[in-house]
Write a structure and sequence with these properties.
Elements (H helix, E strand, L loop, with lengths): L21 H29 L3 H12 L9 H10 L7 H13 L4 H30 L7 H92 L4 H33 L7 H20 L10 H10 L4 E6 L7 H21 L5 E7 L3 E8 L19 H11 L3 E6 L5 E8 L2
Parallel strand pairs: 1-2
Antiparallel strand pairs: 2-3, 3-5, 4-5
Helix pairs in contact: 1-2, 3-4, 3-5, 4-5, 4-6, 5-6, 6-7, 6-8, 6-10, 7-8, 9-10, 10-11
Length: about 425
């Protein structure tokens, strides 16, 4: 099937037979009717000159002119018919419309050029012969150049305009089709990008939720655990040692106030920075998560950019005040690290001590810190509880997220985290973090 491109529509075909639209069918039928009437009228003098019945000339003209009905389906056949009836001086409309349809079609340029050349030559010869005959019959005294000039002008006038117009319309339609395809492709790409952006946003929201939960757990859980331990000790010595009970009560009060301050700062940041934005985009949520982490770090460290390794003595002192026997050993040359490295190392030790309070109350604990050339290593190991029933005797709940949070922190910096029970019945937490 050969098409001119005139019937291309993105929707389904809506016309009869080979027409894409009904108005195209109406146009072609109208042109075919006009062409048939023209050829029928021109068939009368042709039949008289050829010595044929007039009716035969009319029927021949009607059949030849009606070929325009299939111009979109077979444009080559229309042009060939127009060339064939050129000697009979018939089908001017047929030839013009046929050349236009042929030039606007998707056929190769060599075929269009060959058929256009045949039409030009046929029209030129017929016009030249007819003018010579007319001048000879009328015995007109005109120059010898008139007949060739008139023949060439007539042939070009009937061939060049429809050919050039068809070429222009065909090129324009192909360009529009290319632009339409590019627009559709761009729309599909934009839709795909939007879907991927939504997936990334959902992933970022989940990551930030996890991050915020981890920060709140690491900052608050340690102090609350110490509060519970001190409260249990307070209950045990309230009658035996009132002075110690007063000191424990003061420690519980201080730690409670610190825990409330940390919670208030983090929740305040979440309320002001994330209100109405939690489910709209990942960027505001990321900002909220970072702000919450910063607030938690400020609250935990009381000043500066967050907890650091220099505060380990204070951290261990808090556990010792709660009755835990803790031994700290440091190997290697003490030096400073990137803030995220020091904060992660501090959190690992803090959470490990919190787990000792929860699961091995009263067990002796060893905290080891090693400064190496390109990394920092830390290990928190506790012995078995002194009494089988002492583990968890303070009634501290456990959500099972402490070890997971420590592993996530260390892995995010490219480090290695290992935890598990020891052969002596205790528990060991080890981490190695690159010193970047």
């Amino acid at each position: 099937m050969t098409t001119t491109g005139e019937d291309h529509v993105p929707a389904a075909r809506g016309g009869p037979w080979w027409w894409g639209r009904r108005r195209s069918a109406v146009l072609d039928m109208s042109l075919a009717a006009l062409s048939a009437l023209e050829c029928a009228a021109e068939g009368v003098p042709f039949a008289r000159e050829a010595g044929l019945p007039v009716a035969a000339g009319v029927v021949f003209g009607l059949l030849a002119g009606s070929v325009l009905l299939v111009r979109r389906q077979w444009p080559i056949a229309v042009v060939l018919v127009a060339i064939a009836i050129t000697p009979a001086e018939m089908g001017f409309l047929l030839g013009i419309v046929g050349l236009y349809t042929l030039a606007a079609s998707e056929l190769p340029r060599r075929i269009i050029g060959a058929l256009a050349g045949m039409s030009l030559v046929g029209t030129l010869i017929v016009t030249f012969v007819r003018l010579r005959q007319d001048i000879a019959q009328e015995d007109l005294g005109v120059g010898a150049w008139v007949v060739p000039f008139a023949s060439v002008t007539t042939a070009l006038g009937l061939t060049a305009p429809p050919l050039l117009l068809g070429l222009y319309v065909g090129a324009r339609r192909r360009l529009m089709e290319s632009l339409r395809e590019r627009a559709d492709s761009l729309e599909r790409e934009l839709q795909l990008l939007a879907e991927r952006a939504e997936e990334r946003a959902e992933w970022a929201r989940g990551e930030e939720r996890t991050r915020i939960a981890r920060e709140m757990h690491d900052v608050v859980a340690h102090r609350v655990s110490l509060m519970v331990v001190h409260a249990a000790a307070l209950q045990a010595v309230a009658r035996k040692d009132p002075e110690k009970a007063v000191r424990n009560a003061a420690l519980v009060g201080d730690m409670g106030r610190q825990a409330l301050t940390e919670l208030r700062e983090m929740l305040g940041v979440l309320r002001s920075g994330g209100e109405g934005q939690w489910e709209r985009a990942s960027v505001p949520l990321a900002a909220v998560g970072a702000a919450a982490a910063a607030a938690a770090s400020r609250a935990a460290g009381d000043e500066g950019e967050g907890p650091c390794l220099a505060e380990l003595d204070e951290l261990i002192g808090q556990s010792a005040a709660a009755g835990m026997v803790v031994a700290l050993s440091v190997q290697g040359e003490v030096r400073s690290y990137a803030p995220e490295v020091e904060q992660t190392a501090f959190r690992v030790v803090q959470e490990a001590l919190t787990n000792v309070h929860k699961h091995a109350a009263g067990a002796k604990t060893y905290v080891r810190l090693a400064h190496r050339v390109s990394e920092i290593a830390m290990q928190v190991e506790n012995e078995a509880p002194p009494e089988p029933g002492s583990a968890g005797s303070a009634g501290l709940p456990s959500g099972g997220n402490g070890l997971v949070g420590m592993r996530e922190r260390v892995s995010a910096l490219g480090g290695v985290f290992v935890s598990g029970p020891t052969d002596a019945g205790g528990f060991r937490v080890s981490a190695v973090i690159p010193a970047v």
